[in-house]
Amino acid sequence: MVLYFSGTGNSRYVAGRVARALGEPLCSLNERIKAGDYSPVETGERLIVVTPTYAWRIPRLVGDWLQKAKFPGAKRVWFLMTCGSEIGNAEKYNRALSREMGLSYMGTAQVVMPENYIALFRVPGVEESRQIVTRAEPDIDRAIAALAAGEAFAPLRNNLYDRVVSGPVNPVFYALVVKDRAFAAGAACTGCGRCAQLCPTNNIVLRSGKPVWGGNCTHCMACISYCPTEAIEYGKKSVGKPRYRLEAL
């Protein structure tokens, strides 16, 4: 079974590639998390988790869900993490999570995909994004080959920088950066409700036909990236930047 969480399509794309190559079923964690569904998931012996990288680890809401859910029959777990540049020492925390899940840890693979974090970083345009995805294909293929052979992923880089960003920087980043106060919908908003439908934490509600954010944001960027009229901004940081979603490629 391939479980995936995805804000703007990167991890969904990688998960789909893996599932098709291995003949494994796909399960969206977005839907399960949004519904508060922790019912057992029949995964078979092999569990593959594909997620984006948030502050150099897997997203907290994904880790929380994995800790609460049950996976009858599962014995081994592999992690594939998409990122805009690097995942730091996420492997340390994935290994610990695997122990908490009662599963044998089979490694973490990094796949560099187009950056979507419009709240902080530069987001590539369509053509540059296509090139980045093309460069990612060999990494995806190597991960698939290891999975098909039942082998562990190769260990990743683990230097002082990696340990710092995934360690003490991660909680500081969440505390200081992962806020939704800067989100706002402008005059172009049609009140379609797409942002509320996509929000995995049910953090967005429509009031007087406009979205309002409720303080429980995970910064997946789905709302701002999928707004059909590009009416949503993240303060001044998103102004003039392209909205990234993989489907646009």
TrEMBL record:
Family annotation (PANTHER family): PHOTOSYSTEM I IRON-SULFUR CENTER (PTHR24960:SF79), PHOTOSYSTEM I IRON-SULFUR CENTER-RELATED (PTHR24960)
Organism (species): Vescimonas fastidiosa
Cross-referenced NCBIfam families: ferrodoxin_EFR1 (NF038196)
Endpoints of the signal sequence: none
Function summary: Ferredoxins are iron-sulfur proteins that transfer electrons in a wide variety of metabolic reactions.
GO molecular function, one term: 4 iron, 4 sulfur cluster binding
Gene3D superfamilies, per database record: 3.30.70.20, 3.40.50.360
Transmembrane portions of the chain: none
Cofactor(s), names only, from the UniProt record: [4Fe-4S] cluster
SUPFAM superfamilies attached to this UniProt entry: 4Fe-4S ferredoxins, Flavoproteins
Domain 4Fe-4S ferredoxin-type: 180-209, 216-237
Keyword Disulfide bond included in the entry's annotation: no
UniProt keyword list: 4Fe-4S, Iron, Iron-sulfur, Metal-binding
Pfam families: Fer4_9
Record-linked InterPro entries: 4Fe4S_Fe-S-bd (IPR017896), 4Fe4S_Fe_S_CS (IPR017900), EFR1-like (IPR047964), Flavoprotein-like_sf (IPR029039), PSI_iron-sulfur_center (IPR050157)
Name of the protein: Ferredoxin
